[in-house]
Amino acid sequence: MILTSARLTIRLFRAADAPTLADYRSDPEVARYQGWSTPFPVDAAVKMIAEMTDPTAPGWFQYAVEHNGAVIGDVGVNTHENLMQADLAYTFAPAHQGHGYATEAVGRMVQHLFTDRGLHRVSAECDARNERSAKLLARLGFRQEGLRLQHTWIKGEWTDDLLFGLLAADFEP
Which DSSP symbol is given to 101? Predict the structure, then answer.
């Protein structure tokens, strides 16, 4: 599967992408609000890529986001068992943050999930301190549906989670 947007290509990860994936996921600022620890070893990236075999099956699947032939980030889709809804996550290398690439990539993925795969609902959550992520979701039409206070124990502290959702009926491409 390959998706394109004005500036980006969203595709399956390749084994050769592992060093780049490990590099940006090893940055402490990139990992700050994420569930993994730094450094993110290349062998972990190799394993992650090898385990992703069917993007339409239930569970998490990470897609590479490419700009001018280079991987700049990833978008994850967690398809639910019912195959009618999914959760989203996204991570971008620091040099490629603040240029609208995440909004473009996530927006294109949401369009694919609703238009091509026929999903009913797409959800996302983020650490409440991650204002940039919350703003990105709002720009794409996601509605903030909740706040879970001190819900997640991560990296030695309790964090609040913001919950977002978007229904196919409310999606505007």
Answer: H
Helix (H, G, I), strand (E, B) or coil at 19: helix
Q: Is the pTM of this model over 0.85?
A: yes
Whole domain around residue 43: which residue ranges? 2-170
Largest CA distance in the chain: 41
Is the model's pLDDT at 1 over the cut of 80?
no
> Any idea what the CATH number is for the domain that residue 35 is in?
3.40.630.30
Q: Please, are residues 51 and 78 in contact by the beta-carbon 8 Å criterion?
A: no
DSSP state, 142?
A: P
CA angle 163, 59, 40 (to 5 degrees): 80
With 80 as the cut, is the pLDDT of residue 153 above it? yes
**Is 86 in contact with 113 (CB distance < 8 Å)?**
yes
